[in-house]
Every structure is written in C-alpha cells, then in structure tokens.
Amino acid sequence: MLTSFLAMAMFMPLLPALGTNLMAILLGVFISHLYRGYVKRKNWKDLSIPKLWPKVLLASVLQGTLLSLLTLISLIAVFMLIVGSDPDAINKLIGIPPMEGVDEEAMQKLRQASLENFSGGKMIVFLLSFVTSFAIYFISWSALYFAYQYLQKAREMEIEKWKISASVIDAELSTLKAQINPHFMFNSLNNIRSLVAEDTERARDAITHLSDLLRFSIQFDQYEKVSLDKELNIVEDYLKLEAIQLEERLRYTFDIDKSSREMLIPPMIVQTLVENAIKHSINNLPNGGEIVVKAAVNNGYLLINITNTGQMKRIEKPISSEQRRGIGIQNAKERLRLLYGENASLTVQNLNEKVVCATVKIPLNVKEKRTS
Amino acid sequence: MKTLIIDDSRLARNELKRLLKEFDNVQIVGEAASADEAKEKINELKPDLIFLDIQMPGKNGFELLEELEVLPEVIFSTAYDEHALKAFEYNALDYLVKPVQKQRLAGSVSKVYDKIKKRENEQNSNQEGILTINDQVFVKDGERCWFVQLAEIRLFEVSGNYTTVYFDTSKPMITRTLNYLESRLDEKTFFRANRQQIINLKWIERIEPWFSGSLRIYLKGGEEIDVSRRQTLKFKELMSF
Prior knowledge:
- The complex is a heterodimer.
- Chain A is of the alpha+beta class.
- Chain A has helices spanning 2-11, 14-41, 49-85, 89-94, 104-116, 121-179, 182-198, 200-219, 228-246, 269-280, 320-340; strands spanning 226-227, 250-256, 264-265, 289-298, 301-309, 345-350, 355-363.
- In chain A, strand 4 (289-298) and strand 5 form a beta hairpin.
- The radius of gyration of chain A is 38 Å and the shape is rod-shaped.
- In chain B, strand 1, helix 1 and strand 2 form a beta-alpha-beta unit.
- Chain B is elongated, with a radius of gyration of 20 Å.
- The two termini of chain B are 38 Å apart.
- The model of chain B has no long low-confidence stretch (mean pLDDT 85).
C-alpha cells in the first residue's frame, strides 16, 4: 500500500493521492473480506499445504488484479474530477512545475514528452507493478490468515484429544465401578454359597455364569467391538444370576432378529442397560417385572430395544444410586458418540405408565470416527 | 433370643438360617422378604433380634426401622453398601457383609445376647408396651441415623407436628407426637413438665422455685424447663416419698 501511495504521490497532489489510496485500502479490505467468506465456505483451512498454496497464489493474483483495476478506475475517476473542476490542473498533475525562461513552445514539447511517458509499454509495466504489489499484499494476508487457522485447528485437535483420553479413563473407571456392580457381585456370591448346600448343580452353573461375566468385562477393551450374539450371551449369564437372587420376580425374554446377531457393537452396552433396568425397576418392585430385549436391522441401522416394567423417575435429589444410574447411561452415550459420532443414539424413556424403554441405534456401515 | 430374618433373597435367608443353626441362644421365629412383611411379623412375633438387609424392594431397611414402635436389636446385613452404613457416624453399629463370615456373626450375636441379658436383669417389673430407659429408638434426621437408648435422651419437645429429641449434642426430629410418647414412656423416668416438653428425670441438674409456686428445672445439657403450675403439684408428689 505504501508503494502504491508513493507511486501515486509522485505525480498527484497530496490530498487526491491520499484519498485514492484510502479508497484502495478500503477496496482491499472489502475484497479480502469476500475472499475470507469464500475460503470459509470451501473449508480451505482443512486442506493440506501442498494443495492449498497454488490456490492461494492464484486467488491472490486474481484479487491483486481486481484491486488494481478498481484502484485504477477510482484513480481515473479522481483524475476526471480534478480536471473537471480545474482544467489547468492536468498540467500540474503531469508534474511539470512552471519554469522561468522557458517559452510556451518548449513547455508544450515538455508536456508532450511527459504525456508520452504515460502511454504504451510504460503504462503496462506500471500496471503490472501495481498488480504484483497488491498480489503480494493478498499473499501475506492469506499467509497470516491460514497460519492463524492452522494454529487454531491444532489447538482444537489438542483439546479434543485430551477430552477423548479423559473420557476413556472415565469410562474405564466407571466400568469397574458400575458394570461389575459390587452389590450384584457379592449378592451373587452369597446366593451361590447358599446354593452349594441346596442345589449343587445350580451352584455349579451359577459359578460358570459368574466366571463368563467377569471374564467378558475384564477381557474387552472399551473400544473394541463384539458381536451382538456374544454380548447377548453375557446378558443372559447376567440375567440367570439375577434370577437366582430375584427368583420369580424376574422374567425375561429375548427377541433377536437373526440378521442382527453378527452385527458388531461396543461391549457392555446392552449389559449396562439391562443391569440398569434391574437395578432401578425390577429390584424395587415387590412383585417383580419383565425385561424384553429386542434387536433388529432396519434401514441400515441396528436397533436394540430394552423394555422393562417400571417407570423412569426424574432425578430429584441426586444421591448415590441415582447418580450411578446417570453415570451408566451417560457413559454408554459417550462411548457411542466417540465411536460413531452423531450417527448412533441412545435414548431412555417411559413408553407408557408401566413400561420403560431404552433404545440403542447403531449405524451398520459408516466410516468409524475412531481416534487414537 | 427370638430372631427374625429379613432379606428379599430366599437363598440369602436360607444361608443365614443355616449359619445360625449352630447358635443355641438364637431361636429363629420367622423370616420376611420385604419391609411390610417384616413390620407385620415384628408386631406379631415380637422378636428380640432382627437380621435386616438394607437394600430391599419397596421400602429399604432404614424405612422399616423408622416405622417400628418397639425396636428389637438390629444386626444389619448388606452385600455392599458403604454409603448407607456411613449414615451411622455416632453409633457403634452392628453390621455383617454378605457372604457372612462365621466368626463375625458369632461376635455380633454374642454382643447382642449380652445386651439383652443385661436389660432383662435390670427390668424385672416390665409393663407390657411401656418403653423403659434401656429400650432404644431409631432416629433418622436427613442423611444421619442413630440408635438412641432412652436413658440418653434428656428432653422431648414439641415442634409443629414433630417432636425434637435432645440427646448428646444432637437434636433430630421424630414423627411421633408428644402425647403419644407420653403414653408410651415409663412415667417413673419421663415427666411431662408442660404442654410442650417431656423431661428425663435422671438428667435434672437442679430445681429452683419459680413464679407463683411453679418450678424451673435446669437439665444437665443446659436446657431450662418451666414446669406448669398443674404439673408442679404432680412433680412434688412424684418426688416425695
């Protein structure tokens, strides 16, 4: 900008030069603003540097040319204005100061010479230099802009990474706390001890179920996937153990579509929801209740429904067990979000006055959003 | 000791019964699978001791205790519930974790047995249904719980529909009315000083004459009680031989 100003000041009075230049600056800001909007829409900041720089170069030259043309137009407009108000001014503009001892003819020749100065090849060189200087301006603008964007993006990625690792730790912790519910564990052990005296065969089965359940929850990493079939086996182990404790108070059925059995899901998702249903509903109903686990493939999604007798209450005072319920479901939601982004969902709601329904929706064929 | 087992799991009850078989001083009179069933059986069978599971469907163990008028000795049993047990900060509380260790069970049983024996020796002329200073009440105030021996309570005071119980440094409220308490408390120890207050005579520090023939009683806890004129006569009668 300074260069263009100097260029103009060379053959223009100070004030018009300043004005034209101000105009050029405003035009520059306007054009770069439009450019920024365009860049944002096209998400240039997500491009890699080798892809980005030719685009930026071309855009800068284009913008430089545009700005040069606009500046030139405004320059001519200013010229016209000055000439219009003071026809003599053209002489001043061309920049030949009045000289003494020079006759009119010589003066005319001088004017002619300096006018020639403005035409032809020189004019093109002049224009080119204008374009280049503006293009350089836009290049440096882009450099600053993209440098800032990259920095911002790096910082966001850092934060996201940190968030994910924090939630992994959190998920792992609550796996230990919530998924192998200690209350359930010790009750099962106590029941098994009683069964040893009463029904040895059942006691032996119960020990196997408990072992399978423990093995499963220890073995699987939060971010691995298991087949629905495998998960449901574990859920069944779990329900069999709960049935020892709850006896006739617990009734359960599975309604699993054959095509969904081999689908992959994050481990312990169904388990968490079934456990939740028992902990917060069946457990508190003196006459017990029923749990139905359904799974089907529909429209490119795996849908898992867990319905149970009971009502979901609004959490009024978050104390121990209520808090735990929150963690279990929250944790499952977070895991789905980290694995599938916005494509998967988990909702728990009252279906009617007697039944609660938890629904998990998992996309079948999506690019997984897996970090780390 | 007449003993009642309260647990929602049949197997858990059976296991405890098997364990208790070896104790000659424990006589199992019944079992209950829920708080409501337990309440009925306690009123009917009047056990000396209950084994109480904290987590049960419907009402939990604490809610059952709050509803009981006469409290038997209680041994809690729980699979895993740190939070619930933390409620008892001021009481040496007996609880067992399931699966129950035989030695711990023996310890708890003999402790309760000694307590009951001691009480029986002290109160030979026990009137039916009257609470004596050796009986205990279960008090729950928000998140905190206490088993309080009546001997420790200095004062009952009306506060709205509730009654404030003064003992140690605590003043929790219970849902019983003062009139009800008066009818249940042993009148040799607990005296209705006025319409608002019942005091424990064993906690009196000194007595001063007050206006128009009434009395003012100072309790060892620092409370000052004005005895109504009508009750002053009764009080003097009670104190004379």
